[in-house]
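in:
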C-alpha cells in the first residue's frame, strides 16, 4: 500500500517516518522540498506536487498549519484521485468545505514523542466502513477513536485543545497571583502540588526556571487553535470566556516573538505581569 504525506513539518515528517518504518511505501511533498530530503534518503518518493502525490497513493495524509494552507494545498488535487485522510487541526468547517468523496477526518492529540512512539490519540470522523478500512493504517500512529461523521473529529480536537490552552494559562495566572501576593516561587509550586494543577505545575517548573521551552506544540499553533475554538464556539452560540482570555495571552506571547517556542512559553508573559509589580505593595497575609 502506498501512502502520500503532504506537509512535512514536525508532525508530518514524523508521521511519514513512522509509516516507512511500518513497511508502507511513502510518497511525500512539502512546499520547501528540502524538508523531504531525510525521508527520501530513507526510501520515500518525492512528488512534484500535491496532485502528483495523490495520484500515486492509495491514501493522501495532510498535516498542515491551518485551514488556508489545507485549502491551498488541495486546490489542484483531483477529488476522485484517492482517499483523503485529513490529520491537521483546522476545525470542522474546513472539513465540511472539502469536496472529496472519500475522506476521513482524523486530527491527532499528542506531540513529537507520541508520534515517534506510535502513541497518538487519533479522533476519527467518517463512514463506519471507511473508518474500519483505514484503522490498521492509523494504528501505526496510535489509537484511533471513532467519534462520528466527517467534521466530528475536528470538533473533538477543538474540545481537547481548549483544555490545553485553558490549563496552561490558568497555571500561569496562579503562579502570577502567588508571586503578586508576595509568595516565593518555590512556595507557589509547593501549593500547586496539592491542587488539580499539580501535574502541569511539575512539568512546567523547570522550563520556567531556566527560561527554555523546547517546542513540542508551537505557541503560534496554539494561538491558531485558540482562534479556531473561539470561531467554532461563536457559531455554536457558546460563551467561552476563559478560552478567550487564554487566547489573548497566547496572542501577546506570539507578538513578543515567542511563536516558535513551545506553547508553555506563554508562562513568561503571564508570570512577568506579577514580577513587574512591587511585591512589597501586596504582602502575603
Amino acid at each position: 500500500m502506498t501512502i502520500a504525506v503532504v506537509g512535512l513539518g514536525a508532525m508530518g515528517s514524523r508521521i511519514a517516518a513512522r509509516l516507512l518504518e511500518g513497511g508502507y511505501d511513502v510518497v511525500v511533498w512539502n512546499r520547501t522540498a528540502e524538508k523531504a530530503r531525510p525521508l527520501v534518503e530513507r526510501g520515500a518518493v518525492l512528488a512534484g506536487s500535491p496532485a502528483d502525490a495523490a495520484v500515486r497513493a492509495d491514501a493522501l495524509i495532510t498535516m498542515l498549519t491551518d485551514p488556508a494552507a489545507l485549502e491551498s494545498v488541495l486546490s489542484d488535487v483531483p477529488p476522485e484521485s484517492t482517499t483523503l485522510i485529513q490529520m491537521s487541526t483546522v476545525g470542522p468547517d474546513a472539513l465540511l468545505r472539502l469536496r472529496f468523496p472519500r475522506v476521513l477526518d482524523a486530527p491527532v492529540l499528542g506531540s513529537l514523542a507520541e508520534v515517534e512512539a506510535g502513541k497518538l490519540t487519533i479522533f476519527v470522523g467518517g463512514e463506519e466502513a471507511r473508518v474500519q478500512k483505514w484503522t490498521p493504517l492509523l494504528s501505526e500512529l496510535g489509537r484511533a477513536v471513532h467519534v462520528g461523521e466527517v467534521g466530528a473529529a475536528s470538533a473533538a480536537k477543538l474540545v481537547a485543545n481548549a483544555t490545553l490552552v485553558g490549563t496552561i494559562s490558568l497555571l500561569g495566572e496562579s503562579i502570577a497571583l502567588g508571586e503578586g501576593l508576595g509568595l516565593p516561587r518555590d512556595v507557589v509550586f509547593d501549593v500547586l502540588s496539592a491542587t488539580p494543577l499539580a501535574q502541569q505545575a511539575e512539568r512546567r517548573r523547570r522550563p520556567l526556571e531556566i527560561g527554555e521551552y523546547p517546542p513540542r506544540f508551537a505557541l503560534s499553533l496554539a494561538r491558531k487553535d485558540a482562534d479556531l475554538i473561539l470561531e467554532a464556539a461563536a457559531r455554536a452560540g457558546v460563551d467561552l470566556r476563559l478560552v478567550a482570555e487564554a487566547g489573548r495571552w497566547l496572542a501577546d506571547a506570539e507578538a513578543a516573538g515567542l511563536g516558535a517556542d513551545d506553547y508553555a512559553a506563554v508562562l513568561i508573559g503571564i508570570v512577568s505581569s506579577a514580577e513587574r509589580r512591587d511585591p512589597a505593595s501586596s504582602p502575603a497575609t
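note: The longest strand covers residues 142-148.
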